[in-house]
UniProtKB/TrEMBL annotation:
Protein name, UniProt field: Short-chain dehydrogenase/reductase SDR
Keywords: Oxidoreductase
Domain of life: Bacteria
Gene3D superfamilies: NAD(P)-binding Rossmann-like Domain
NCBIfam families (alphabetical): PRK08264.1-6
Organism: Cellulophaga algicola (strain DSM 14237 / IC166 / ACAM 630)
GO molecular function, one term: oxidoreductase activity
Family: Belongs to the short-chain dehydrogenases/reductases (SDR) family.
Length: 242
């Protein structure tokens, strides 16, 4: 299903920096009527508020808390599109003293966070025939050993995104799963990636993919390499009706 940003009300989690901030700017530049900036620290969006004025509204949100996300949905009760961008990514291998704690923390945000967002906003999006965008990763398809627990948490979120495509898609909601490679963010820097792609490759790619009605977006050069290898499996299995 094709979905355009123009004149729509959007909500972006983790909107204060990195990919989230770029998504906000792309949405406003492509004609969004209003963008909710859903962040844990409401003082962190001052730059965006100064730049875009009443086009943006900051709301406190913590995707690791069900109560907080349910409250967020009550406050932002006019949204057409939700972008669940908030996530954490600590460089942690599979073997480690605190690996269970690390994996639990990443699941809490990266996978359960998606469940919270989807359930809180499902009714709104169904009524508006809106869109849900989930920021996954190429790490959802391949475990990178130095990011093992992150990769596993994103594999879980990607599986859930497929479920949402089936459930919400049947009710007229466009669902987009975004799979970037290394992007120029604090997370990529912490993981030691070099030559990372610009955040705008993701944000502008989302605009294009939504308009095309795609389910997958592999926005940058490395991600597109993964896409070329994954495409036949995706077409035959992931996107097939069983």
């Amino acid at each position: 299903m094709s979905f355009t940003i123009e004149n729509k009300v959007a909500l972006v989690t983790g909107a204060n920096r990195g990919i989230g901030k770029a998504i906000v700017e792309s949405f406003v530049n492509h004609g969004a009527k209003k963008v909710y900036l859903a962040v844990r620290d409401i003082s962190s969006t001052k730059e965006l508020e100064a730049k875009y004025g009443n086009k943006v509204v900051t709301l406190k949100a913590d995707v690791s808390s069900t109560a907080a996300i349910n409250e967020l949905a009550k406050q932002a009760n006019d949204v057409d599109i939700v972008v669940n961008n908030a996530g954490i990514g600590t460089p942690y291998a599979t073997i480690g003293k605190d690996v269970e704690e690390d994996f639990t923390a990443q699941l809490q945000v990266n996978a359960f966070g998606l469940l919270r967002i989807a359930n809180a906003f499902a009714q709104q999006l169904e009524e508006k025939k809106g869109a849900l965008v989930q920021l996954n990763s190429i790490a959802s398809l391949k475990n990178f050993s130095q990011l093992s627990t992150y990769s596993a948490s994103k594999a879980a979120s990607y599986s859930l995104t497929q479920g949402l495509r089936t459930e919400l898609g049947a009710k007229g909601v466009t669902v987009l799963s975004v799979h970037p490679g290394p992007i120029d963010t604090d997370m990529s820097a912490a993981a030691g990636f070099e030559g990372a792609a610009a955040t705008t490759e993701v944000s502008e790619g989302i605009i294009t993919a939504l308009k095309a009605g795609d389910f997958h977006l592999f926005p940058d050069a490395m991600a597109k390499q993964v896409e070329s290898a994954y495409q036949s499996f995706s077409d035959a299995i992931v996107l097939a009706d069983f």
